[in-house]
Design brief:
Layout: E1 17-23, E2 31-40, E3 45-46, E4 51-56, E5 64-67, E6 73-80, E7 82-89, H1 91-95, E8 103-107, E9 112-118, H2 122-130, E10 138-147, E11 152-153, E12 157-169, E13 172-182, E14 189-196, E15 201-207, E16 210-211, E17 215-217, E18 224-226, E19 229-231, E20 239-247, E21 257-260, E22 267-269, E23 275-281, E24 284-291, E25 298-304, E26 310-316, H3 334-349, E27 352-354, H4 356-362, E28 378-381, E29 386-389, E30 397-400, E31 403-405, H5 412-415, E32 421-427, E33 443-448
Parallel strand pairs: 2-9, 10-18, 10-19, 20-26, 30-33
Antiparallel strand pairs: 1-9, 2-3, 2-6, 4-5, 4-7, 7-8, 10-11, 10-14, 12-13, 12-15, 15-16, 15-17, 20-23, 21-22, 21-24, 24-25, 27-32, 28-29, 30-31, 32-33
InterPro entries: Carb-bd-like_fold, CarboxyPept-like_regulatory, Plug_dom, Plug_dom_sf, TonB-dep_rcpt-like
Membrane topology: Multi-pass membrane protein
Family: Belongs to the TonB-dependent receptor family.
């Protein structure tokens, strides 16, 4: 598919995804608390500084406004019981040209209602930004170009993405570098579709007297990858970077070498505790690389600025000795990719994965039957079928193919036939991955055979 950018307006089908979990409190009163988290599904991190607004559904004039903190958390105290309308805004929303719709939330008297507001997921966003016809070997790259020291958008810069390609012609094969401009808008944002996912990409921004470093980016097929760029004066040397180098088990690595790619002679050696400090660096987005004997070189991106000290954490795996092998090149199916990602998540966060083989052996009548043997989960009879509950009979959050389902714990057997369930992930309490965060009562992810 050819590279292209699209300026998308008023995406009525997309917007803030809201998951509501009511946490009962003893001594119900007429007033309640409405709290939650704003989450950036593209960066897989909280959306710090987001403007969050709430108003009673019957009186939208009485709008209350708060700003999310550095962890994306927000809170409205002493709200009245009833239906409330919530929405949020952030520069990232403008970057993607989203017109965020409002959502209604029912607040019970005396309760604390927890709400997760998030941007649409990467795959869903990709379909909207780039169209349904996009091939499975390309993705989209989005981001914002900002001045590192003023922390303000920049539009008077040139930005581009580049990657190596093999060029065949005139009886020879040569490796060339393809360089494609990023369409930076007035607000400093850019969206580029059709970016190859099977190549090592490098992005960079530069302008009159300012530039970023060369930043390495990996774009996954069929989804959206976000990489912000900040620019500064290359000759200015007033930024500071600290960090730690550890192995993949969290142990510090001493005497490792940390360098700034693109700045000759700038590096530091870690102490016995794995810590390092680099002073007198130029502002902007730069790629750092850590090297140590017996370890695989590891890279990380740092946003350097005179406004704050940047921090980078490295996790360096050991070199894996392997035998020569025959490699069969093919495409990973959607089902295989989702299972691989689910296995990695459950290993990392201590969740439970119910695999296709286990589902086939159990031959469940309803999806809820798969959760009967999962520790920390209860399957109880409800008004229209089974419902699922966590410890203390609190209500867990339910996702279907990565999308949060409101009231999914009460409608789990109506969401999808048991025969269509490919795999199930279960996380107890608050240990779920941040992109599938719930309200502290556990998370259930259903994946279907697609």
């Amino acid at each position: 598919m050819p590279l292209h950018s699209r300026h998308v307006r008023a995406l009525g089908a997309l917007g803030a995804l809201v998951v509501v979990i009511a946490a009962p409190r003893a001594g119900a009163q007429q007033r309640a608390v409405l709290r939650g988290v704003v989450y950036d599904s593209l960066a897989r991190a909280p959306l710090a500084g987001a403007l969050v607004q709430a108003a009673p559904a019957g009186d939208l004039v009485r709008v209350r406004t708060v700003y999310a903190d550095s962890l994306g958390a927000f809170r409205f105290d002493t709200v009245s019981a009833g239906r409330w309308v919530l929405g949020f805004d952030h520069p990232v929303v403008g970057m993607l040209s989203l017109d965020m719709p409002t959502r209604a939330v029912d607040v019970a008297a005396g309760d604390t209602t927890a709400v997760v507001l998030s941007l649409p997921g990467g795959r869903r966003m990709h379909r909207v930004l780039c169209g349904e016809a996009t091939g499975d070997s390309t993705g989209a790259l989005v981001g914002m170009v900002r001045d590192a020291d003023r922390d303000a958008p920049v539009d008077s810069v040139r930005a581009f993405v580049a990657w190596p390609e093999l060029e065949i012609g005139r009886g020879r094969i040569a490796q060339v570098t393809r360089r494609v401009p990023l369409p930076v808008r007035v607000d400093g944002s850019f969206v580029l579709c059709g970016v190859p996912s099977d190549a090592e990409l490098m992005v960079r921004a530069e302008g009159r007297g300012v530039a970023s470093g060369d930043v390495m980016v990996e774009v996954k097929p069929g989804t959206v990858t976000r990489q912000d760029l900040s620019v500064g004066a290359p000759r200015a040397t007033a930024s500071r970077l600290t960090g730690t180098v550890r192995d993949d088990k969290g142990h510090p690595i001493g005497h490792a070498r940390v360098i700034v790619l693109g700045i000759e002679g700038r590096g530091a050696t870690t102490s016995e505790t794995g810590a390092f400090v680099l002073d007198s660096l130029p502002s902007g987005t730069w790629t750092m690389e850590a090297r140590a004997i017996g370890r695989r070189p590891t890279r990380a991106v740092a946003q350097l600025s005179t406004r704050r000290v940047a921090d980078v954490q490295f996790a360096m795996p050991k070199y894996a000795q392997s035998l020569d092998r025959v490699v069969v090149v093919g495409k990973m199916s959607v089902a295989t990719r989702e299972l691989t990602e689910a296995l990695e998540r459950t290993r990392m966060h201590g969740g439970t994965l119910i695999t296709p083989d286990q589902i086939e052996r159990r031959n469940p009548l309803y999806p809820s039957d798969l959760l009967r043997t999962v520790p920390g989960m209860q399957v109880l009879p409800g008004q229209f079928g089974n419902v699922i509950r966590g410890r203390g009979r609190c209500t867990p959050t339910v996702y279907l193919d990565g999308m949060p389902i409101q009231d999914g714990a009460n409608d789990i057997d109506q969401l999808v036939p048991a025969a269509d369930v490919m795999a199930v992930e279960v996380y107890r309490g608050i240990v779920a991955p941040v992109e599938y965060a719930g309200g502290g009562c556990g998370t259930v992810l259903l994946w279907t055979k697609r």
